[in-house]
Input
Amino acid sequence: MRRPLSVMRAHSQAGWIDLLYKVTGAGTRALARAQAGQSLSVLGPIGVGFTPHAERPRALAIGGGVGIPPMVFLAERLKDAADAGATAWKPLVLMGSELPFPFRVRPSSIFVPGMPDEAIGCMPLLDEWSVPSRLATQSGFAGCFDGYVTDLARAWLRSRPAEQLAETEIFACGPTPMLAATARLAREFALPCQVALEEFMACAVGGCAGCAVAVQTPLGTAMKRVCVDGPVFDAATVFPA
Output
């Protein structure tokens, strides 16, 4: 069976994609053993992605664990759009992990007003793009906020004036408990929030319905397939109050 993996970077003209994944079982172990030049069968991209809104250019991207790659993808797309002059996007990427981060953490060169003093570590790649990022953990890694990534997001949001909150939208990917906490955070600050769900996907084309989740619709609760109806949903429809 195929393994559902998030794309971290992609270049359609050059014809390459970057995948960042954790080896957890037979499938990802086999992928990790692949050699340069070997051909792999890939199906994608599939489903519905994030939809940023120009009226809310302050994109707060929250990634937890293996939910980090989509936040990097989103940040690069917004950076490229801003560079092209489409919209003055101002992404901020917050990442949380209890395992060592899959990159060398270093102090950020970008000042983020309202960020807790101890949160100075960043993802170097994002810093090079001039996209601010900060890290959170409960594992005591140097330069990281001590706590959940949603706690870091809350601390930063509390410091923001009302006019900036009115321009903010939350995007998140990570474990289900983290996404539920992000949905509560969005309700606390009355912010729109989109979440990318993590589910096992057997067929990836909507045929088996093995990845279905309950979603609130105007007509009541409906089962939606994460692979084709998602993986991105309005947080309030998946995690209602």
